[in-house]
């Protein structure tokens, strides 16, 4: 039995950055909205929580200089930002296990390896510059680039293993969080084009520039505040009936009749909704070729940022380490020091074969290789495991399997009758980032407003 029936112009499924942005834009345009969220909180993949007395950003957290939509939203909401700590030397661990301190963007590798990395990076920047992140499938070589794996293409460029591992890092291990043989060169170029260039992706000072004081989840929290009682939590949508006349969304407690629907959640969750009639064949096929990556985000809080005493920035990289990258993630104004590290794809799979204590020991051992033995003894330790989140099922976002982007990419955002789609997984610029989610929320809201105005003018 449902508790209530509601009528709105638009029902939004998902109270993340995309859905809440769309709902606010629609409300501003004079349309009524209701937002249905399966979780007991808003924010989706943005989640700031207090764990053992420490404020941790369990999901997305950084803002880069090119993320103008997110910057505008942060400013509109009156939030303050601060720069990620980066004073001091970074750390790189090479294939021999030796720890190297360095400054600048290039890892301290041999001159020959550095030359290869620079040459291939220049090649990738030129290729990414030709790719429209909103239409990567339209590139003349899209079909060719979608048939070769990212791993195979890199091996075509060089046989320098250290160069390959470091080049593969930015789009594979760090961003798509999948093994490099599992996705295409085209998918990798989309990741690069969405950030402006491949060079931007490998520049930590660019891509991980600023944070929001108090955590990035404040963006969806404040957007939801503006919507008040029109945001309904703990209400996963079980079924969605649709026709040209509109939609009927049903949860365990609510039925919402609306003219339009926006599915504003990860595409891997579309199958959790029973559609009547079923979605078209094209969408059924498309959605089967999208999957989430997997990464463990590790938080370690200490009584002070001890690495700074060693002249270290906290920035650390190694394609040979369990934690392939780590950063100073100390909160604004906090006397304690926080490190955040990442373990992705197959390494993350392997760790979950271990007990929690063994997993912690292995991860902290890896961090100690960068920062010294003091890293093994945090006051607070926590692992963000988005793979076990019922309403996310991976991190950071969905990407296509081999050949999927060229074959299905053009249909990613195509509305099905009154049903529209919006989330960071579908974005061009800002793909996989909060900025992309906001862009998609704005885009879909404008499309619905145009449709509503056209329909009103014909009545």
TrEMBL record:
<comment type="similarity">
    <text>Belongs to the flavin monoamine oxidase family.</text>
</comment>
<keyword id="KW-0560">Oxidoreductase</keyword>
<feature type="domain" description="Amine oxidase">
    <location>
        <begin position="18"/>
        <end position="448"/>
    </location>
</feature>
<dbReference type="Pfam" id="PF01593">
    <property type="entry name" value="Amino_oxidase"/>
</dbReference>
<dbReference type="InterPro" id="IPR002937">
    <property type="entry name" value="Amino_oxidase"/>
</dbReference>
<protein>
    <submittedName>
        <fullName>NAD(P)/FAD-dependent oxidoreductase</fullName>
    </submittedName>
</protein>
<dbReference type="InterPro" id="IPR050703">
    <property type="entry name" value="Flavin_MAO"/>
</dbReference>
<dbReference type="InterPro" id="IPR036188">
    <property type="entry name" value="FAD/NAD-bd_sf"/>
</dbReference>
<dbReference type="InterPro" id="IPR001613">
    <property type="entry name" value="Flavin_amine_oxidase"/>
</dbReference>
